Amino acid sequence: MSDCLFCKIANKEIPSHCVAEDDYSYAFLDINPSSLGHTVVIPKKHYFSISEMDEQDLGFLFAMVKRVGLLLGETFDSPNMNIGINQGSCAGQEVGHIHVHLIPRKANDEGGSIQSVVASYNGEDLSETVERIRASKNKNKNKE
Ligand code: 5GP
Ligand code: ZN
What we know:
- By secondary structure, the chain is α+β, with helices and mostly antiparallel strands.
- The protein contains three helices and five strands, in the order H-E-E-E-H-E-E-H.
- It has helices spanning 5-10, 55-75, 126-143; strands at residues 18-21, 25-29, 39-43, 81-84, 100-104.
- It has a five-stranded antiparallel sheet, with helices on one face.
- The longest helix is centred in the middle third of the chain and has 21 residues, at 55-75.
């Protein structure tokens, strides 16, 4: 997509600190790192979210996430990191090209876990929740 920041980074129209690259994916340092080594991994092809992604591209993307995770683990002598996607504006997505954050962690860095991003659970019975989710699955099946 011509006006997408991360497409421009993948195409090298905008410079970035490349961590790793293959034909399908590109990994680069986040310009505003949450921790030392904070890396973003993107598919070279433009997608907004994983829901739209071709399963093969998704496989390539996560193979790169694994490679970069191992690389960061070696570099910083620790396998500890948060790996996550902000999907949609309510979840904090600012750049509309899917990207996976790898945020290296270390002891006593005072950060939280992925679960600490929100605490909005309203106490609904989990059986009710799972029923609603399953009902959606059936709705979608009927559409096919
Ligand atoms: P989001 O909130 O969309 O999940 O994260 C987007 C990330 O992209 C942010 O962490 C932000 O710092 C990073 N970012 C935004 N613009 C640039 C840029 O021009 N270059 C690099 N390397 N990272 C960027
Ligand atoms: Zn893009």
